[in-house]
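for the recovery benchmark. tokens below, seq after
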């Protein structure tokens, strides 16, 4: 890592901010789509990403790191998932309305793409009535 002190500072700021947000009664940010209370950390995450890229390039030039197909696929897959989720949150009325927090049977970013679990009288998985 080219500047360890800067990286440690950025990680410390991220950790301290996370802990402060966790102290709020409304720590999850309410019924909304997106980070809301954690969006102040975007510049710090960007800084950490830049430091990581510089460190990877240095390790690659020194022969200590090598990109493999699996590593490339992992980076592309994570980036694609991130872009898809954030695109849905920014462009879809259904996603913005949401289905409520903690509802992984109908997550907000898939609202309007998959059928709502309460739209029918039976659960698709086991045929039992939905409560």
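predicted aa per position
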């Amino acid at each position: 890592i080219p500047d360890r002190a800067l990286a440690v500072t950025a990680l410390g700021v991220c950790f301290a901010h996370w802990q402060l947000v966790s102290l709020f009664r409304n720590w999850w940010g309410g019924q909304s789509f997106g980070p809301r209370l954690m969006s102040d950390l975007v510049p710090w995450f960007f800084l950490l990403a830049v430091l990581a890229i510089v460190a990877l390039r240095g390790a690659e030039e020194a022969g200590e790191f090598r990109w493999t197909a699996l590593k490339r696929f992992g980076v592309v897959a994570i980036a694609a998932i991130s872009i898809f989720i954030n695109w849905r949150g920014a462009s879809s009325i259904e996603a913005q309305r949401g289905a409520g927090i903690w509802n992984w049977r109908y997550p907000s970013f898939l609202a309007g793409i998959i059928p709502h679990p309460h739209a029918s009288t039976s659960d698709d998985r086991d045929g039992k009535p939905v409560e």
